[in-house]
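User: I'm writing a short report section on ligand binding and want a predicted complex to refer to. Could you take this sequence and adenosine-5'-diphosphate and write out the structure as tokens? A short remark afterwards would be nice.
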Amino acid sequence: AEPRLVAVRASVISPRLTLVVMRDITERERVEQMRRDFVANTSHELKTPVGAVTLLAEAVESAADDPAQVRVFASRLTAEASRLALLTSRIMNLSRLQAADELIETRDVAVDEIVTAAVEAHVVQADSAGVEIARGGRRGLWVRGDAQILTEAVGNLIANAIAYSPEGATVGVGVKDADGVVEVAVTDHGVGIPEGEQDRIFERFYRADQARSRRTGGTGLGLSIVKHAVQRHGGEVRLWSRPGRGSTFTIRLPLIPPPEGDGASNRRKA
Ligand code: ADP
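Assistant: Sure. The structure tokens for the complex follow:
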């Protein structure tokens, strides 16, 4: 954008010379606008599940004399409440990642630790979808960052890969070292993403093909969290996808040498 300058301070140096300090407000306005959009979208997205929970709670109350009805409403209430819980926790994570001044924890993190935790957190989802998770690739690679945030990022990709795969399919989680960059690739053989939507799916609350997406009960925030999390770690996310063939999301992070005393580095020295 064109810089837009405003004077923030003027001091008269001599009768013929005044020093004016200018500041470019474009960037600040852009950030402010993003914040306003986020709040507006968030309130909008929260209204639907909050409304549903309220209605279902009232339905449970008024069906008190009919135990069968109560069970039906109560189980829908449980489903809506857990969706609401997922949505609020994702909104909180995303706003934390977007707050530029909030520091993320940085320590040496084993990529194996991230991948193991992310895969384990999705075993139940994979089982109930009839999808198998196949893990492979390099071991003993390290990155610097916040293990919890990175685990959630990889986990979101795995959750999507499962959700958009047909029953009986396999989801691959692979790690490799590509010239000083760690690549964690999550591959599925599911529905795929049309070319025209491949950029948009990383936007907050964006969900491709409403009918298909609604069925899988997502939030539209998963990929936005992945993108922000990876960018905060100096990395990037790449996507390859073809409708009907499947998708590969690749998280790329700067590789660091293994810390002293790590098994992998000892083996190399030996
Ligand atoms: P959601 O909670 O809807 O999955 P995401 O931000 O994680 O939100 O994803 C945004 C949209 O991108 C999804 O609604 C879906 O249309 C598309 N998408 C994400 N991952 C995949 C995938 N592995 N295969 C096909 N479509 C995907």
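A remark for your report: DSSP finds eight helices and nine strands in the chain. Residues 265-270 have pLDDT under 50 and may be disordered.
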